[in-house]
Specification:
Helix content: 10-25%
Oligomer: single chain
Amino acid sequence: MAALSAPNSSPVTFNKDVLPVLQKNCQGCHRPGEVAPMSLLTYADARPWAKAMKTAVVTKKMPPWFADPQYGHFANDKRLSAADLNTLVSWADNGAPEGDAKDKPAPIEFNDGWNIKPDMIIEMPQEIQLPATGTINYKNILVKAHFTEDVWVEAAEMRPGNPQVVHHMRGVVRGPGSHWLENAVPGVAYEAGDEEMNSNEEGEDLLGKFNPGLGAQSFNVGGSAKFVRKGSDFVFNVHYTAIGKPATDRSKIGLVFAKHPPTSHYITANLPTAYNLVIPAGDSNAEVVSEVTLQNQAKLVYVQPHMHLRGKDYELRLIYPTGESETVFKGKWDFNWQIGYDLAKPIVLPKGTRIVGISHFDNSANNRFNPDPTKEILWGPQNWDEMSAAFLGLVLDEKTNPRKLFVRSGPSLLKAVPGKAGPTLAALSSTTAATP
């Protein structure tokens, strides 16, 4: 701490030194209408929080970032540089002065709250009514999106209408002719439809996601974009939480269309998934392993782990057809900050590559977020259930069929064994990769 708070050659001020750091690293979330609890746009906003900001950055609570630096390199790495960290600490330690107004950089211009400039906005057609208390099951809301022609989407941003009640949500394209939610009335919230969506048989592709701290997503990796067919509709899949009083929500998604024909196809795949997971009661470090095998070549460009309240950490490991193994992501899990990680450089995955997810869970009484450490936990959609999965961004040749790109293999083919954590890493050596 003494080293961090050492004085600079000139006094650190908000306008000259601190504001640029906040603009670069913090204001995406710390501004009115966003998920953070306070705004950091101005000196008046930030000054009362100077000491708290110092504590948050020194303890690395902020900015939220959980990837182990020994595994992988990421283009959206949110860790503060040593210089930026020292700036915030020095400012707090020396009275948090404002400085000269002429030193202020120009404010960041946000487009009506958006972090992108949407070409198209799809909004829920009416308010969703939510109860004051109790469990709110996942909701699926169909919207007639009026895609009058085939389009390629290079960026998307989902924005909650009421950030207090929206914990996370997914935006899914429903292609023309799909039977998924075929009798749904647009704008009405349904609790059915999750199973079909997760199977990827009826749904198309994730067009966007919202989690605290995730922000907008770009699908332009070397000229790639997401494809949406003419006549498609859109489904909001939302996890709401009760806040002690009746509430409403009307969320939306903004899309940016590709300005030039794409050279490749970007998809978001929800895998590998451990539908057969078992987490014994009281187990403080239960291991769960899942696997899929690639049926065609692709490039891995994005990783976003997904677990629930008992999750501790997640690893994504690649086992190439040569037998070589590589861990491309490893990091702690925080249910409240479900961050996505953009690879600094795409990783080519040859046909036959096995993609392995390794999760650990704390189902003990020592986990203060644990709903009930006396229960054995299986796969399920609610917070008191668990998941071991990831959202992977992949870039494909346009001729590759995404629905035939993966098959479950290895540990994911095993039956759940009640009372025994798993499947575990031991299953990797006792099972073989799947074949088409």
